[in-house]
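Deviations from the work plan: none for this task. Representative record:
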Amino acid sequence: MTRNQIRITLLSGFALVAALIASRPVAAQDAKQPYPNMAPIEKYLMDRDAEIALARSASPGSISRDAEVLVLGRHGFETAVKGKNGFVCIVERSWTSAPDPDFWNPKVRTPICYNAPGAHSVLLRNIKRTDLILAGRTKDQVDEAIFAAVDKKELPAIELGAMCYMMSKQGYGGDTVDHWPSHLMFYFSQTDPAIWGANLPGSPIIAISDAREHVTTSVIAVQRWSDGTEAR
Amino acid sequence: MTRNQIHSIFLSAFALVAALIATRPAAAQDPQQPYPTMAPIEQYLMDRDAEIALARSAAPDAISHDASVVVLTRHGYETAVQGKNGWVCWVGRGWGAMFDHPEFWNPKVRAAECINPPAARSVLPYAYKRTELLLAGHSKQEVIAAIKAAIDKKELPALEPGTVSYMMSKDSYLTDYGGHNGPHMMFFETAKDGAAWGANLTNSPVLAVNYWYISAEAYPQLKSFPPLSVFLVGVAKWSDGTPAPSM
């Protein structure tokens, strides 16, 4: 299972998302391979101020106001705003945050705010992944490079307490799942999801393990968007 | 149900935000202490079968069906049902809250909870010990001293990573305040406070409280306890799958 398949599996755990997926002619889109290659870099870039605002919308303003903000440049993510509270907000792109059919979808914009342990571990992987993608590596090459870096401990293990907020009302998850429910994600060094009762009928926790990256990710839907409005 | 009411419920559900308590207009409801002392033990006990059913209702049946269930007796908790999946479901009483919580002795509190194996091994022993000592007639100060001694001697375990608790019962009574109940998950962490998770900030869906105390002024020895924070995230449905009021 690829990283992005894991992503979509997690998201598919949400009833809303499942319904969205079910209602879409996915097979037909897959057959056409709407995004077979990387688009010109310009299509992935954003206006800097708009990107900062979108990144911050991932969490309540009480958190993102003092967070560091990264924006995408031609060679990778760079710091646009220095933070004070350890959180880092970012708008991730398709190659780290969308299902496989949308891997190169230039419209994908997924705002995320990581807490400090998440920024020290999970985010570093996505930054490296982005660097490699923008340097022209293929998807498979990037996967192998990340797996190797994790195995060699060039990328740190998942830090205890790593989590992130994905509560933006905005953003675009891709053609497969255009908008995700408001949710929190928690990361652990590889653990059996059963330990949390995840993925069982009625459980509010969706979780999946990625053996190659030695990480288990769990998701809990929350009831409001980052601006406090109701999300259900 | 307002957000502040939810906060209050969460706090009563074994941890609460000191600031909210401090700022809450509690005087109108309880000028001093609504429950200054322990009520007769009978008021805390339940019919055994009803307690088993309530305990199991804390989590979806897929979890609680194979969980162990413990029930309260006159001398402490005892296993009523031996489980198979490592989870333990139980019904907490008021004294499961922070030692200075105003509803510590509230005999109406019935906090159904199912906790996962790491929490059963590393959090539940604290609740058992506290309960046994209190039911034996020890004062809060004595209980605090005994727990501290047990921690120092490593008779009580250190917190394991990956602990989680389901509190999704529709039938719990967590507090006198507000709607008395709300479905949520709890995570136990060795954090000093909720800052690392962005808890207790405006519009954050994460609440965090200290496991031991609200202010520690009444029981200063609690400040020397190992840091233990409880993080709470509200969820949309009760354990039976029906929707809960929006938080």
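Chain A touches chain B through 40 residues (CB under 8 Å).
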